[in-house]
Amino acid sequence: MRIVFMGTPRFAIPSLSALVAEGHDVRAVVTVPDKPQGRGRQIGASAVKVFAESRAIPLLQPESLSDAGFVDGLRALESELFVVVAFRILPAVVYSIPSKGAFNLHASLLPKFRGAAPINWAIMAGEEETGVTTFLLEEKVDAGSIILQKRTPIAPDETAGELAERLAEIGAQAVVETVRLLGAGEPAVTRQNNDLATPAPKIHKDDCAIDWSAPGRDVHNFVRGLSPIPCAWTTHRGKTLRLYRTRRSGEAELKSTGPGEPGQAFVAGKDQLIVRTGTGGAVSLLEIQQEGKKKMEIAEFLRGFPIRTGDFLGR
User: Fold this and answer.
1) What CATH number does residue 12 fall under?
2) Burial class (CB in 10 A: 0-12, 13-18, 19+), 20
3) Which of these three, 196, 223, 242, is where a domain ends?
4) Quick one: average pLDDT of 230-242?
């Protein structure tokens, strides 16, 4: 099938790779313009652009998706289908171009977790199952008719980064199957129940501060749901600490700390740092990073940084 693929981050690469492997005629890849990246703010390309260039696929990088020249260029490609994975919101003038329509791959079981950060929000909400959805594009974001879904369990300690890697591969399977369905005709679709929709908006740094008064389960889900990016954080003596991994503390660990308040730290030996949470719970910190330093396992961190029993985090 003649396809135009639209995507930006690494999450989209398995889907694009799968379409190429299936022998589809990927006439162009649309991605974001090159922009400053990282601490050095050097101009860099999107992950999808790098992949497309390695396969000699023509590239389009419009500043505006409504630009007349860009729209005319898309029409000239005579594509049958637009496949969208982790890209920008398309205007109707774009998604109405191809003869067989345009569909999006979304990393949740819609209508749950509509928005820019579905993987993060699913884990933070304590979900035990998630998946991917392909749906037809329409004016309202993430609200189009569902073509197919694939489900997968979420492991109790799985981070957002780990889940994203798995969903990217599951999503690639869903994309290939969806293209086959659309190529064979008009597949049966299911309208989303908007009453069941939940939001998954973009997450900002201020949203990532840990509330130690929350139950231990919620703190654990919060940390892993934001790991490795944008990353949960707290403070200690004026320094920011980024947390990448935690573990819910068991009864024995709770008893070993004695009474404590939310945010209070307890150092147990050389390789354990337990922090009290709300409702009498606690979490054990496993992977941590102080501002200006490298990410460390907790044993290495405790050798070089002076956190003592009784100290408070987040104050």
Assistant:
1) 3.40.50.170
2) middle
3) 196
4) 96
Predicted confidence at residue 253, as pLDDT, reads 80
Range name among 18-27, 166-175, 270-279 with the lowest pLDDT average: 270-279
User: Given this model, what pLDDT does residue 304 score?
Assistant: 87
Enter the pTM of the model: 0.95
Q: Could you report the per-residue pLDDT of 132-166, keeping only the tens digit for each?
A: 999 999 999 999 999 999 999 999 999 999 999 99
Instruction: Return the structure tokens found at 22.
Output: 């299936």
Does 108 lie in the same domain as 15? yes
CATH label of the domain that carries residue 285? 3.10.25.10
What is the domain extent for residue 101? 2-196
pLDDT digits (tens, 9 = 90+) for 255-311: 777 888 999 999 988 899 999 999 989 999 999 999 999 999 999 999 988 899 999
> Which residue among 176, 196, 216 closes a domain?
196
Residues 145 and 271 in one domain: no
Is-contact 116 199, C-beta < 8 A? no
Assess whether 162 and 248 both reside in one domain: no
- Nearest C-alpha neighbor of 109 from the set 95, 91, 121, 101: 121
The token duo for 56 is 């000699």
* The residue to which tokens 């109405």 are assigned: 96
Cα 100 to chain centroid distance, Å, stands at 28
Angle at 152 between CA 146 and CA 157, to 5 degrees: 135
Cα separations (Å) of 50 from 34, 46, 185, 281? 11, 6, 33, 46
> In this structure, how many other beta carbons lie within 10 angstroms of the beta carbon of residue 103?
29
39 pLDDT exceeds 80?
no
